[in-house]
Amino acid sequence: MRPTRKHHSNMSRPAGRPSHMPNGTVPFNFKSYFENEAYIFYGYVGPVITVFVIIMNVLLIATIIKGKFRTSTHAVMIAIAFADILTGIIPVPFNVIFFSVNHVESFLKIEWCYIFEICQIILPAVFHLISLSLTVALSIERFFVVSFPLKVKRFCTMKNGILFSISVIVASVCAQIDTFLDVSYEPVEIISRNRKFTLTGCRRLIKTKSDEEFITRMFILRFIPCILLIIFTLLLLRKSSDIQKWRRQSTSTSITTASLERMDFAVSLIASIACVTELVTASLLLNEHLNSQYRITPSNALLSGIIYVAYMTVSPINLAILCFLSEKL
């Protein structure tokens, strides 16, 4: 059963039917999120999974920081953990207030429109793609570790891992900086038919891009990282298999050798899961965009909610892989 809708003066319009806009444009509202129960993913399922993700990632970060883990691999793992935390936690306050507590289906004040765009759409996408880029960096870093074992202690330090992660983050943010400029909101005055109230609502204005531009952007930010993940995962698995004999001869114990092999496999498995997840979700998003052309429709609101939950679900799976396959984590 759908919960009873509530209205609050600081977020939504008072009761009453708004007048039509002079040009026929409908002011921005959340009806699309409630028409096919998409709000359930944003207001209930997503926040619960996000809490679990935050706990898991905080434990991972604390374990690495407090332990004797000082390699570049662990530095990149910490960066991924922070990116996953931010991906999940940024939209939670907004989603809980609007979709879980208040069930706001009506028009938003202009200031809440900008908060929605930043917290619900822009920043989660930015940090998710940062996490994806860092996962690619993790597979590349691990491949370097396996390919040049004699140089590991010199180059693959925690400091270099931090610098490497920061470089990847900066490059990822720069590649997405235009997303902050694609959408803007124009204030519009909404007057009820009985003229008992007025509300400064908003009209969502989107910078027009051709399908070719959008596809190119998707290919660069989502599909190319997946291609790199496939390439370096295969190279890592092959190199790890080739170096097993050398490791057994050069390392002091079989436990150390087994630990290194488990870490190689863990990174490969994480990269594979991230690649499959991203390929599927990116393909769905691309298809939905071609049908909706940037509009927030009931179908893409539901799809975005499901994908948001899927991203949050993959994060603890990756951490579980690290916990079970990497000795000490």
TrEMBL record:
Q: Where is the composition biased (Basic residues)?
A: 1-10
Give the species this sequence originates from: Mytilus coruscus
Q: Where are the transmembrane segments?
A: 39-64, 76-101, 121-140, 161-181, 219-237, 265-286, 306-325
- Main subcellular location: membrane
Domain G-protein coupled receptors family 1 profile: residue ranges = 56-329
Which SUPFAM superfamilies does UniProt cross-reference here?
Family A G protein-coupled receptor-like (SSF81321)
Which UniProt keywords are listed? Membrane, Transmembrane, Transmembrane helix
Region labeled Disordered — which residues?
A: 1-20
Spell out the molecular function terms from Gene Ontology. Answer: G protein-coupled peptide receptor activity
Official protein name in the record? G-protein coupled receptors family 1 profile domain-containing protein
Where it sits in the cell: the answer is:
Membrane
Question: In which domain of life is the source organism classified?
Answer: Eukaryota
Q: Which InterPro entries match?
A: 7TM_GPCR_serpentine_rcpt_Srw, GPCR1-related_rcpt, GPCR_Rhodpsn_7TM
Asked whether the keyword Ribosomal protein is assigned, the reply is no
GO CC terms of this entry: membrane
Q: Which PANTHER family match?
A: SEX PEPTIDE RECEPTOR
